[in-house]
Amino acid sequence: MKNLPRILMIIAAFGVLSLFVFPMWRISLYAPQYPDGVTMYIYINHIGGTSPGTLQNVNILNHYVGMKMIEPDSIPELVYFPYVVGALSFLALIAAAINRSKWFLFWGILFFVLAAFGLYDFYLWEYDYGSNLSPTAPIKIPGASFQPPLIGRKVILNFVADSFPHTGGILAGISGVLAFVAWWLKRQSKSHA
Amino acid sequence: MKFDLLIFKKTVQALMFGGFMLLFACQPPSTGTGSAGVLAGDAASAVYVAPGEHDEFYSFMSGGFSGQVTVYGLPSGRLFKTIPVFSVDGEKGYGFNEETKPLLNTSYGFVPWDDAHHPELSQTNGNTDGRWLFINGNNTPRIARIDLSVFETVEIIEIPNSGGNHSSPFTTENTEYVVAGTRFGVPYPQKDVAINSYAENFKGMLTFIKVAENGEMDIAFQVLLPAFDYDLAHSGKGKSHGWTFFTSYNSEEKNTLLEVSASQNDKDFIAAVNWKKAEEYIAQGKFKEVPANYAHNVYDEHTHTATSTMKKTVKVLIPSECPGLVYFLPTPKSPHGVDVDPTGEYIVGNGKLSADLTVHSFSKMLTAIENEAFEKEIEGVPVLKFEDVVGGVVKEPGLGPLHTEFDNKGNAYTTFFISSEVVKWKVGTWEVLDRVPCYYSVGHLMIPGGDSKNPQGKYLVALNKITKDRYLPTGPEVCHSAQLYDISGDKMKLLLDFPTMGEPHYAQGISADRIAPKSRKIYPIEENRHPYRTMGEKESKVVREGNIVHVYMTSIRSHFSPDNIEGIKVGDKVYFHLTNLEQDYDVPHGLSVMGANNAELLVMPGQTETLLWEPQRVGVYPFYCTDFCSALHQEMQGYIRVSPAGATVPLKWSLGEEEAEI
Ligand SMILES: [Cu+2]
Questions:
Q1: CA-to-CA distance for B282 and B379, rounded, in angstroms?
Q2: Fewer CB within 10 Å: C terminus or N terminus of chain B?
Q3: Mutate to test the interface with A, among B537, B584, B634 (most CBs of A within 10 A)
Q4: Residue A85 in 3-state DSSP?
């Protein structure tokens, strides 16, 4: 089991890479007229949904209250995030190659710093969409905020909005934790040696 | 004195009338509706489908003289949709918009109505498969195909050499063919002859229409027969797969006062056609390719447009030249329905003027054919001996048998028009097991899968011809009525009455799980290949070609693009090509333009439809969305400005003020 910390780091590298396959986050809107909900999937490089028309459907709903169109082409994060994630995965592999507990710790901290930055960025986007409303919106509701929750559930007018990490996000999060486990195991084995 | 006589007469009349009334009053009918009360508690829960819950079965009912098909849920009897088939329908713009007009094209030009009788579900291995629904047009002989993923008519084929396409469409076990048989003998080929030269000049044609893998229909061959009136049909199944049976009346070949003249023969015939044999003859080239002229209309789900093609020949097989192709089975007294039991062995000939119900045996028929024990031959068709083919007789089951369907427990259910009842009897023992009254005068009946190899049982729907007092009166014209019976037990139980549209002749039922999962929600916009599609608001435009103006218009909640159009002139032909950009379930948009001489458009998400508008007067005319699509639906409107014929107002279109972002 000597190699376990290393293996954990390799797993972490692939866990992070899963973000290229699975959505990072999901936002679902429910209302009586939408019994199956309208679910948007946020990937690191694009925004998808339960159907090809999902984004258009969300934008149609949003435009009544003057929210901006969600246009993936105008979100720079979707362009550079894949590089950040790629680099992060590569760094995990290097850490595994070097096989030093310090590197594991460093990677784990880096991961959570980036994750925290990502969440903060996500929050800013949500804030921007939710409160930067067009002055010519057909429906104006004084004091209402259309900002979806960062994590959790919130009632927005006639909708219930859910915002939760999805498969890719969860696997990536586990990767971060694995790095700390690897660091701890490595230290244990060192102190025993 | 004269005056007194009149009074005397009136008094006698009044007394006689009163006497009759008294007579009836003394004998209250025992077949009244009282029994429903006893059942009410039970029946109500049996047909109750709670709000938000779904029915267990779809039921497709012919709209009869409405020309359409209606879709009901069972057991609730709730109406879901009217599918326009043979008649124009302003509600959906069917037959009014440019895309669906070709569907109603025939060799007589545009025919906006028909009389639709028998819906028939496609089958695989003798089971209803939920792919398509076929239905016949009786008046101008046609067969339509409805695609059950979208519940829309996608194809109509005209039947040549036919008059009154009644014995149709009745599929074979794997939907190899649907059939058509002429109810009225017509001169063959059509010509100007004396009507009373009927026996000499008239013929009766049976038609087999090949159904391709993708559902497309093509007339494979016709069989030329004597000018009997071919009334109904059903194809064999299991052991009798490969045969199709057609009933006939008027074997007397009369052309006037048929109610008397065509009811004289003791027996008419069921024509048994061996279509596998026909395929061999076709392969051997033993057909006559004869000139014809009939329309074949196909709707393409990508161009969202129908095209009509005129076909010019048809292959005809002549029985005297094709031995073994057709046999006549003598069947008592003007048989109406012909129904094959689930095993394929028994062929029920519902002799509508007969006291008994005759059931032929398929295996006895084969033996008789093998022994060549023929009674005689009519125009090259051997007539089998009645005793040789009859498999059983249900003795005096009721008056006026019309149609029979089957359950999955070896029972048959036959409707009796005159005695107004459904009678349940055992296949094989021919004993009558139960009977229930119908309100009133039942025609067809339907058990889900009841004409397939594996009936789904559980419910029986009686389709009644006369309604009278069953519902609140609506003036002289009242609806037709369907009645739902529970047939899961030994005794049939009346559960529900519900009104139907037009005159539902036949119906088909199928468990919802064979259709619902395949039901489409939208048309993907990226698959739209309509020649006048507009793939985004930015592409919307107005193009003039002489006096023809094409408006490339889009709809999305809650506006049209463009919504202001100028530069149109009196005398122009304006084509509004509306593409609904929505990709969300249940968000159609409508379009109606003031003064349009046709109807609205009702465009499903991802679809393009075209409305022709011919402005007659100078002015500014509003157009608007007719389907309440959103909170701002009322705002979904626009204007089109019409200038005098010679005006120089430039062609202009816009959406929103300035170059505003939408
Ligand atoms: Cu609308």
A1: 20
A2: N
A3: B584
A4: helix
Task: Give one word for B400, left, alpha or beta, with left for phi > 0 and alpha for psi -120 to 50.
Answer: left
Tokens 């267990």: give the residue: B56
**Contact in structure between B460 and B46 (CB atoms under 8 Å):** no
Chain-chain contact of B583 with A138 (C-beta, under 8 angstroms): no
Distance B605 CA to ligand 1 centre (A): 11
Look up residue B76 and give its two tokens.
């609730």
Assigned token pair, B73? 């849920």
User: What ipTM was reported for this prediction?
Assistant: 0.86
- In chain A, the DSSP E strands lie at 25-31, 34-42, 47-49, 152-156, 159-165
Span A117-144, mean pLDDT?
90
pLDDT of residue B363: 98
Are B583 and A57 within 8 A, CB to CB? yes
Range in A49-58, A104-113, A183-192, B465-474 the model is least confident about: A183-192
Give, as one character, the DSSP assignment of residue B539.
G
Residue type, B522: I
Distance CA B492, CA B35 (A): 13
**Most B-contacting residue of A38, A39, A40, A60 (CB-CB within 10 A), to test interface:** A60
Task: Name residues 125-164 of chain A within 8 A of B (Cβ).
Answer: 138-139
What domains does chain B contain, in order, with CATH numbers?
Answer: 56-244+269-517 (2.130.10.10), 532-661 (2.60.40.420)
The tally of CA atoms less than 13 A away on the side-chain side of residue B453 is 19
C-alpha–C-alpha distance, residues B295 and B133, integer Å: 20
Asked if A124 reaches chain B (Cβ–Cβ under 8 Å), the answer is no
* C-alpha B207 – ligand 1 centre gap (Å): 45
Q: Residue A8 is inside which H or E element, if any?
A: helix A4-17
Torsion sign, CA atoms B157, B163, B167, B173: negative
Q: Is the peptide bond before B499 cis (omega within 30 degrees of 0)?
A: no
Find the residue in B nearest to A62 (Cα).
Answer: B557
Residue in A closest to B587 by C-alpha: A57
For residue A53, give the nearest of B557, B584, B635 by CB distance: B584
The Cα–Cα gap between B640 and B357 comes to 66
Q: How far is A87 from chain B (nearest CA, A)?
A: 36
Q: What is the pTM of this model?
A: 0.91
Nearest Cα to Cα of residue A45 among A85, A104, A8, A7:
A85
Chain centre distance of CA B458: 24
β-strands B637-643, B564-569: how paired?
A: parallel
The CA B572 to ligand 1 mean position distance, Å, reads 26
3-class secondary structure, B490: coil
Q: Chain A residues with CB inside 8 Å of B524's CB?
A: 52
The tokens of B538 are what? 């930015």
Q: In whole angstroms, what is the distance from residue B487 CA to residue B650 CA? A: 70
Strands (E) across B229-319 are located at 229-235, 243-249, 267-274, 288-300, 305-317
Q: What is the mean pLDDT of each run of 10 residues along chain B (662 residues)?
A: 47 45 47 48 88 97 97 97 98 98 98 98 98 98 98 98 97 98 96 95 97 98 97 97 96 91 88 98 97 98 98 98 97 94 96 91 98 95 97 94 96 96 97 96 97 95 95 94 96 96 95 97 97 97 98 97 98 98 96 97 98 98 96 95 97 81 43
CA distance A10 to B542: 60
Q: Tell me which H or E stretch contains B464.
A: strand B459-464
